[in-house]
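*** Fold description ***
***
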Amino acid sequence: MSSKPIALVTGANRGIGLAVASTLAADGFHVVIGSRSGDAIVGFDCVQLDVSSSQSVEDAFTFIESSWGVPEVIVCNAGKTKDALVMRMPDEDFADVVDTNLTGAFRVARRATKGLLKLKRGRLIFIGSVVALLGSAGQVNYAASKAGLVGMARSFARELGSRGITANVIAPGFVETDMTADLDQKRRDEIAESIPLARFSNAQEIAEVVSFIASDKAAYITGAIIPVDGGLGMGH
């Protein structure tokens, strides 16, 4: 069993997830990365965890608990996009994105709750998006899935708060990741002009906020949406 508190981060093989995992490790957590492939990532313990499968989630938690102990910080970061204008979006693409981003986060948080209730403490941290509040053309499925995280997190907060368990949503704006790297320069410039801070964030800036919410300093914050978007979504 680990002598350190355990943090589980899903979808942490790159980008925001990997930055979160590295930052929590620096904070003193024993970080376990859950990914669909389960491939090894240098410096971390990794488990195979497919958020689209309740059985995979169950197997991953059983392995983590028997190997290292109960995770007390859960960062639900695994997600995907399948962008298309609404008239061209097939049912399958809508359902697939919602199943991964929203139902997948539910599967992980539901299973995590079993251990957190025994610990009588814990952090459920959901990685949302500014588009949950603003909407985004071509991303009806993605925006719906991220908006759903807000209601879900607040329901977890009400159900579990009396046991010392918090549930919050971090809402990034545009972040320098592999996903945004595909944007052409003209589009990048247009987006930057719409952001009060006039730039994209980097993954580390998101990770630092996750680090705060995971810490004792944030013990009295629950049911919140914490924007990390350079001001893009203010007022929403």
The chain has a mean pLDDT of 94. Residues 6-228 form a domain with the Rossmann fold fold (CATH 3.40.50.720).
